[in-house]
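Course exercise 7: structure representation. Students receive a sequence record and must write out the corresponding structure in token form. The form below is the worked example handed out in class, using Reverse transcriptase Ty1/copia-type domain-containing protein (134 residues). Read each field label carefully; the graders check that inputs and outputs are placed in the correct fields and that the protein name is recorded exactly as given.

STUDENT ID: A-19
EXERCISE PROTEIN: Reverse transcriptase Ty1/copia-type domain-containing protein
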Amino acid sequence: MTKEFLHSHFHLKDLGPVKYFLGMEFLTSKNGIYITQCKYALEIIDDARLLDATPNHTPMERGLKLSDKSNLLKDPGHFRRLVGRLIYLTVSRLDITYVVHVLSTPKASYRSSPSGCPIPKGCAWLRPVLLLKH
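STUDENT ANSWER:
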């Protein structure tokens, strides 16, 4: 009924059921529609150069404090882009919402760990996202 109504008012081309749109995969079954962002998460992991990293169930070390004495990021733009992509990923991954919030603070966006990882306090916080690839 909705398709007919839209066709009567607009010139449309029906491409069939949606499978992938704006970084989200849509799966349908008799129980309903499921939304996943597995492909999008893998793109983020690849962009962070962590495809070979080990997943971790703990998103962040306990009591994490970002220090003003840590090194400045070499490429803050890359970090901001990564955090922006992670914010979009929280649509389907509520377990990383707090970590992404902490990483999106102004202090985090300009600091890195002593190890030289372009991500504050190393890359361990991104490991829960790695669980999607297994």
